[in-house]
Amino acid sequence: MTFMKKIKKLLRELRSKVTIVFIHHGKVKPLKFNFSVLFLFVFLAGWTGMTLWAGFISGKHIDYLTVKADNKIMKVRMLFFAEQIKKSRDMLAQVKQNDDHIRSLLAMDSKRIIIENGFGAAGGPTPVESSALSMLLSGKIDDVSYQEISKQSIELLEEYKASIKSYSEVINHISAQRELFRCTPSIWPCKGIISSPYGVRFHPLHRTNFFHRAIDIANKRNTPIVATADGVVVFSGWMSGYGNVISIEHGKKYRTIYAHLEKSLVKKGEFVEKGQEIGKMGSSGRSTGPHVHYELHLNNRPINPMKYLSSYIN
Q1: Residues 302 and 213: beta-carbon distance below 8 Å
Q2: Which distant-in-sequence residues (6+ apart) come within 8 Å of 241 by Cβ?
Q3: What pTM does this model have?
Q4: 3-state SS string for the chain
Q5: Reported confidence tier of residue 181, pLDDT bands at 50, 70, 90
Q6: How does pLDDT run across 94-148, given as a tens digit for each residue?
Q7: Hey, how many other C-beta atoms are within 10 angstroms of the C-beta on 251?
Q8: φ, ψ at 259 (rounded to 5°)
Q9: Using 50, 70 and 90 to split pLDDT, how confident is the model at 20?
Q10: How far is 194 from 203, CA to CA, in rounded Å?
């Protein structure tokens, strides 16, 4: 059979009729429809194509709506994150303000800047100040910028690092000031009254005027004598004229001397703390009665101890 004959046979078959009968079980007459095979083939092919196309378009639309919904959700999350950033910045601003007050109270290096610039709060309103819900309802959610939030996150991190650095500086400053206080002779070595001040005085034994480079504090024998600052005992023993003596070195600047003691309670090389009892008041050496000869040296030169004790009178 030739190719043309096959084509003619196929066309005859496509032109052939097909009858479709719809039979109702009631009194309605049956419905008959005659269609050619070619018509049914074209109809079914068209119906299938339209169905596939509609499914494709519907899928695209659903994907678009899904992506759009996801974007909205991401925007809301970005707004929430932005609000948390703003709250964190507000907290850091309060921390910074407190830090400035503390620095001012401690008279740290930034005091001049604080006085000149005041205690202004940090930062102004941000583009994402409003709540996520209000932004969503107002239709302004698309105004949220990822770049702006990223920028604020970086700025927040830098502010946090600066706060941590400043906090460390304050702690170190307080530690240094505390160490300075502990090593500065600033309390009275004992209870009593000043029987002889610092400066020129009349010596009761030698009957002459001389420069007294200490203060004498009188009280009952065995009155406790305490160290006036943290330090290391560099001498504890007998010294001509001074009797039982204790000498304490406080860091590199100060040294204190306690003389005419009844007895010493510490030894050379021992570390003593501020307020620790180191001896008992007595009248050893050249003395006219129980008292302590309290001498203070600054950079190896005697100074008036009263400048350091005036605020700590017993």
Answers
A1: yes
A2: 285, 286
A3: 0.54
A4: CCHHHHHHHHHHHHHCEEEEEECCCCCCCCEEEEEEHHHHHHHHHHHHHHHHHHHHHHHHHHHHHHHHHHHHHHHHHHHHHHHHHHHHHHHHHHHHHHHHHHHHHHCCCCHHHHHHHCCCCCCCCCCCCCCHHHHHHHCCHHHCCHHHHHHHHHHHHHHHHHHHHHHHHHHHHHHHHHHHHHHCCCCCCCCCEEEECCEEEECCCCCCEEEECCEEEECCCCCEEECCCCEEEEEEEEECCCEEEEEEEECCCEEEEEEEEEEECCCCCCEECCCCEEEEEECCCCCCCCEEEEEEEECCEEECCHHHHHHHCC
A5: confident
A6: 777 777 777 766 666 554 444 444 444 444 444 444 444 455 445 555 555 666 6
A7: 15
A8: -120, 170
A9: confident
A10: 15
Average per-residue pLDDT in the chain? 77
**Across 202-222, average pLDDT:** 82
Chain centroid to Cα 237, Å, comes to 51
Residue 217: CB atoms within 10 A of its CB come to 24
Evaluate whether 188 touches 312 at the Cβ level (below 8 Å): yes
The token pair at 195 is: 């029987």
Query: Whole-angstrom distance between the N-terminal and C-terminal Cα of the chain?
Result: 136
256 forms beta bridges with 248, 296
Domain regions of the chain by residue span: 3-72, 88-183, 193-312
pLDDT at 251: 87
* CATH 2.70.70.10 applies to domain 193-312: yes
Residue 248's Cβ-side half-sphere holds a number of Cα atoms within 13 Å equal to 33
At 274, list the tokens: 């501020």
Band (32; pLDDT cuts 50, 70, 90): confident
Asked if 187 and 274 touch (Cβ cutoff 8 Å), the reply is yes
